[in-house]
Amino acid sequence: MTPRKLRIVADENIPALEALFADIGEIKTYPGRHITHSDLVKADVLLVRSITQVTAELVANTPMQFVGTATIGTDHIDEAALKALGIGFSSAPGCNADAVVEYVLSCLLHLAAEQSFSLHEKTIGIIGVGQVGGRLASRLRALGLSPLLSDPPRQKREEGETFVSLDELLASSDIICCHTPLTQTGDDPTWHLLNEQTLQRIRAGSILLNAGRGPVIDQQALLARMKGANDLTLVLDVWEHEPVVLADLAAYVRIATPHIAGYSLDGKIRGTWMLRNALANALGFSPPLPLEHYLPVADARELKLEAQADVLLPVRLLYDPYRDDRALRQTLLLETAEQAIAFDQLRKLYPVRREFSTLTLVVSSPVQATYLESLGFRVALE
Ligand SMILES: NC(=O)c1ccc[n+]([C@@H]2O[C@H](COP(=O)([O-])OP(=O)(O)OC[C@H]3O[C@@H](n4cnc5c(N)ncnc54)[C@H](O)[C@@H]3O)[C@@H](O)[C@H]2O)c1
Ligand SMILES: O=C(O)[C@H](O)[C@H](O)COP(=O)(O)O
User: Cα(132) to centroid of ligand 1, in Å?
Assistant: First the structure.
C-alpha cells in the first residue's frame, strides 16, 4: 500500500526540498525564524535549519510525526521533548563538515600568505574532534602536520587517539580552532568554554578561529582581551548573539563571516538528502536516489596549474573568506535590528560555493599533486 502524502512544513532556506520531498509530501515553506505552532496544526513533518527553536510548545498538540534539521548542530532542538511526545527526530551529522574544514583551510592559508608563515611552522590545536574537527585533523595530518587535539568526551570513551587538556592546548598552540557543539549541561559543557580565565592561557600572537557555535566563546571576555592587548588574530564565523554581531568585537576580527562556514551547496543539499533518508527510514517511504542525482554539476570542474602556482589560486577560486568578510562588514554600521536582518539576508542569498572535491587540478609535479590532494582537491597528473 502506498503511504498517503505527508503534510510537510519547512524552512524556506532548505535547498532541494521539491526535488527530495515532492513525491511524498505537500510542502509549505516559511521563514525559519517565524515558524509558529499555528503553522504546524496540520503538519506531519517539520524540516528546519539552525534558526528555528524547536520546543515542546511548538510541536505539542499537532499531528507531527517527524522533525528533521538539515544541520549538524542540534542546540536549537529540544530532543527530550520530541522523544516524550513520540515524535521522530533526525539531524544531518557531518553533512557540511567538509565545507567547514575547507573554510578553515582557506582562512589559515590566506593568513599564512598575509603574515608570511608556513602552516608547517605552527602548532595547530583543535578543540572538539568530531566530524569537523576530526576531518580537519585528517587533512592536516595528510599535509604532514601533527595537530593537538582536545576532546574530553572522546578522551573518556576511547583509547588509541592522543588527546591533551584544554589548558595544554591553549598554552601550546599557535593556531586554535574551535569545533565543539554548544552544550550547557553534562560533564563537559561548552557554553563559555573560552572565558576570561581560559582566554588568558592563549599566547600572544596566536590565531583563534571559531566555526562551532558563538556562545562557546564569551565574547565580552574576548573583546576585553582585544581592547587590552589586541594580541590575537581572530577568525569568527559564529557570534554569541546571532543574528546580532557585536560590531566592537568585529572591529578586532581579521576574518568575520556570517555563520557560513558550512555553506557549500554540496553540504546544504547533502543535509536535505540525509533528512529524506531519515524520514524514509522512520515513516516507511522509499529512499531518495543517490546524492549525486541532486547535486548540480560544478561550473569549474578542471583547472591546469603550473608547477610554481600558488596554492591560494585554486583555494581562493573555490572559497575566498574575504568575500564573506566584506559582505558582513558592510552591515555592521546599521542599527542593531537592521544589522540582524542583513545577517539573515546574507545567509539566505548566499552565492553558490562548491567543495574542493568538485575541482580536478591538472598538475605535472607529483609533490604538488600530493599536497593538493591532501587539501581535498581531486588531482590528475599530466
Ligand atoms: N559554522 C558553521 O557553519 C558550522 C557548520 C557545521 C557545524 N557547526 C557547529 O560545529 C559543531 C561541531 O560539528 P561536528 O560535526 O564536528 O560535531 P560532532 O558532534 O561530530 O563533534 C563534536 C565534538 O566535540 C566534542 N566535544 C563536546 N564537548 C566538548 C568539550 N567540552 N571540549 C572539547 N570537545 C568537546 C565531542 O565529543 C565531539 O567529538 C556542531 O555542533 C555545530 O554546532 C558549525
Ligand atoms: O550546524 C550546522 O550544520 C551549521 O551551523 C549550519 O551551516 C547552520 O546553517 P543554518 O541552519 O543556520 O542555515
Answer: 7
